[in-house]
Write a structure and sequence with these properties.
This protein has a single domain, classed as Peptidyl-tRNA hydrolase (Rossmann fold, 3-Layer(aba) Sandwich), CATH 3.40.50. It has 7 helices and 7 strands, in the order H-E-H-E-E-E-H-E-E-H-E-H-H-H. It has a 7-stranded mixed sheet with strand order 2-3-4-1-5-7-6, sandwiched between helices. A hairpin with a 2-residue loop joins strand 2 and strand 3.
């Protein structure tokens, strides 16, 4: 049987999926804070992205007593749903077992919002995921809009999200990436409601 199915299914309880675009040219852009939060979480779990499967780079390990896979899909952002569906198939889990962390242009930099479920908003990666698996999964949204809530984004939206943070924003952006990773860890270890209580203030 292993010959046909590639061996036993890796045993994990939850999957954290950081959204972004693969490639060095996108690494430090606003649109890739999901990748960066996933990388920070992997460091906290002391694991490496050593597995290439389900069109993703995956780090497998544990957060406390919870066995976890931390994934960075290698499809481009607009096709994230294809990789997420393959991750669920690989680990034989349902949508409620994932936590997706991603950039949110409808939130100002410095804000994080955690939700148990819901629609995709204006995010193309989330739209792809909801189209592939439905909307009943937890997510951690990291704000990337200008800090002043009444500020207007001058550039085209695609141009804005695919640009690096301004030098004046970089320190706060780094703090929020760390906070996003912490929020994912709390959601995995202690539950999404606990994470919402701690980080949605």
């Amino acid at each position: 049987m292993k010959r046909f199915f590639g061996g036993a299914t890796p045993a994990v309880d939850r999957i954290v999926i950081g959204l972004g675009n693969p490639g060095d040219g996108y690494a430090n852009t606003r649109h890739n804070v999901g990748f960066q939060a996933a990388s920070r979480l992997a460091k906290r779990a002391r694991v490496e992205f050593s597995v290439k499967a389900a069109e993703s780079r995956i780090a497998e390990g544990s957060l406390g007593s919870v066995r976890v896979a931390i994934a960075r899909p290698q499809t481009f952002m607009n096709d994230s749903g294809r990789a997420v569906k393959k991750l669920l198939d690989r680990y034989r889990l349902g949508p409620d077992a994932i936590v997706v962390v991603f950039d949110e242009v409808d939130l100002p930099l410095g804000k994080i919002r955690i939700r148990e479920a819901g629609g995709p908003g204006t995010h193309n990666g989330m739209r792809s995921i909801v189209g592939a698996i439905g909307d009943r999964f937890p997510r951690v949204r990291i704000g990337i809009a200008p800090q002043r809530e009444d500020a207007v984004i001058d550039a085209e939206l695609a141009e804005y999200v695919l640009a690096p943070f301004d030098p004046a924003e970089r320190a706060l952006a780094d703090q929020m990436i760390v906070k996003g990773a912490e929020a994912c860890e709390v959601a995995i270890r202690d539950g999404i409601k606990r994470a919402m209580d701690l980080f949605n203030g």
